[in-house]
């Protein structure tokens, strides 16, 4: 396994840089015969591109997938699938500061410069740009198709931005997320979040927030304990999204404050099916799905690229200075990260479904 690959039976290899020729993904292990529709992949991609909302950058990311191999007559052949998106609309002049050696506080510039001895592509954050998540989304769109026989649903929504937190939503309500600019499918909280973002935007600042992931129709037993438990694989996937700083499953950190009698989910039988009365476990016990909805919460930091002047250093000239950024940056990446988190959830579930024999490899 290389450092840029993820998954075992279903494997994705991520490649590309922000201002390079392309970003993309190589996928191995797609069951032959899986229907691959560019139209469906492009629908997924259009959910992650910056939109006109207050949250997003004015940067243009008109992403259209090109499949270079692994598909014949609309179906996966079983050979490696390579899919790319050409980078358009990137403006190198905004990154002169990076060429000169100025590093952005809170971004990957400094450790990347040291680790790669100054040879890393600094334009637009290079390999550390969220552009690389285009490949994650392509892989997720294909994973969704692989999982179709199991009827598994994955739905994410914006749970919070800054200090505004939407109450927990039901799966059916959450499904309307893409009707809202903020991806928070509550008219009240959609407005409150927009206000919160506008305030930060006026200040030339940025905001963090949280995404809630929910799933429906999971079978019992997805996950390969111990090191490939479903929660550890999901956490690894989520932490590969730029700006993610925390992942919780079910009650998460708050479970540490509960007593066992409060945290345990009592079992009952409803219409002949074993179920639980509560879901503090977030659908995961012993690293396996337990048949309840899998619930994850992903915390994002406020993005580092802000328009306020910032104190920093020039690594080439070894001097201190003040950095004033130009260019297009997101006030808050959470709305755009919803499809990215959903895509990685589908990918992990598909890999686990193949590994666990829920879906046949061939
Ligand atoms: C959808 C998305 C868009 C992002 N856009 C920006 C951006 O415009 N400016 C920025 O500084 N960081 C942005 N980021 C975050 C950086 O890529 C990230 O903070 C950086 O690579 C450092 O990694 P780390 O925050 O995980 O440590 C974005 C992240 C996501 C998920």
Structure, briefly:
With 362 residues, the chain is of the alpha+beta class. Helix content is 26%, strand content 23%.
Question: Would you write up a description of this structure?
Answer:
This protein has 362 residues and is of the alpha+beta class. The chain has a single domain, classed as Chorismate synthase, AroC fold. The chain is 26% helix and 23% strand. The chain is built from 9 helices and 18 strands. β2 and β3 form a beta hairpin. The structure holds flavin mononucleotide.
Going by CATH, the homologous superfamily would be Chorismate synthase AroC
Helix fraction by DSSP (H/I, runs of at least 4): 25-40%
Radius of gyration: 21 Å
Q: How would you sum up the major sheet?
A: 5 strands, antiparallel
Strand content: 15-25%
How many domains, in number, for the residues? Answer: 1
Structural class: alpha+beta
Bound molecules: flavin mononucleotide
SS field, number of helical segments: 9
* CATH A-level architecture: 4-Layer Sandwich
Topology as a string of helices (H) and strands (E): EEEHEEEEHHHEEHHEHEHEEEEEEEH
Strand order of the largest sheet: 1-2-3-7-4
| CATH third-level topology | Chorismate synthase, AroC fold
SSE topology sketch:
Elements: E1 5-6, E2 11-16, E3 22-28, H1 38-48, E4 65-69, E5 71-72, E6 75-76, E7 81-86, H2 96-100, H3 109-115, H4 133-146, E8 153-161, E9 164-165, H5 171-174, H6 187-202, E10 209-216, H7 230-239, E11 244-249, H8 260-263, E12 267-270, E13 273-276, E14 284-285, E15 288-289, E16 295-300, E17 310-314, E18 319-323, H9 334-355
């Amino acid at each position: 396994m290389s450092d840029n690959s993820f998954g075992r039976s279903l494997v994705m290899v991520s490649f590309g840089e922000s201002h390079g020729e392309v970003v993309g993904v190589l996928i191995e292990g797609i069951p032959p015969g899986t229907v691959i529709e560019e139209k469906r992949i492009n629908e997924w991609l259009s959910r992650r591109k910056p939109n006109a909302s207050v949250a997003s950058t004015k940067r243009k990311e008109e992403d259209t997938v090109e499949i270079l191999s692994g598909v014949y007559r609309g179906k996966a052949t079983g050979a490696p699938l390579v899919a790319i998106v050409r980078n358009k609309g990137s403006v190198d002049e905004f990154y002169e500061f990076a060429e000169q050696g100025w590093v952005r506080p809170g971004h990957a510039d400094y450790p990347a410069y040291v680790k790669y001895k100054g040879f890393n592509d600094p334009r637009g954050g290079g390999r550390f740009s969220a552009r690389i998540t285009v490949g994650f989304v392509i892989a997720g769109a294909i994973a969704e198709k692989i999982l179709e026989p199991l009827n598994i649903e994955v739905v994410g929504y914006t749970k919070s931005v800054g200090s505004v937190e939407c109450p927990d939503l039901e799966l059916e309500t959450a499904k309307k997320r893409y009707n809202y600019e903020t991806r928070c499918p509550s008219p009240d909280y959609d407005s409150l979040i927009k206000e919160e973002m506008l305030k930060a935007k006026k200040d030339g600042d940025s905001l963090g927030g949280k995404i809630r992931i929910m799933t429906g129709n999971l079978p019992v037993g997805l996950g390969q304990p111990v090191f490939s438990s479903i929660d550890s694989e999901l956490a690894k996937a989520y932490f590969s999204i730029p700006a993610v700083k925390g992942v919780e499953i079910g009650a998460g950190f708050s479970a540490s404050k509960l007593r066992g009698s409060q945290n345990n989910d009592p079992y009952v039988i409803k219409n002949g099916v074993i179920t639980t009365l509560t879901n503090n476990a977030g659908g995961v016990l012993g690293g396996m799905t337990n048949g309840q909805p899998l619930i994850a919460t992903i915390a994002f930091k406020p993005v580092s690229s802000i328009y306020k002047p910032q104190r920093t250093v020039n690594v080439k000239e070894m001097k201190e200075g003040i950095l004033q950024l130009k260019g297009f940056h997101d006030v808050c990446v959470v709305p755009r990260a919803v499809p990215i988190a959903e895509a990685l959830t589908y990918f992990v579930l598909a890999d686990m479904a193949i590994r666990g024999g829920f879906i046949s490899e061939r």
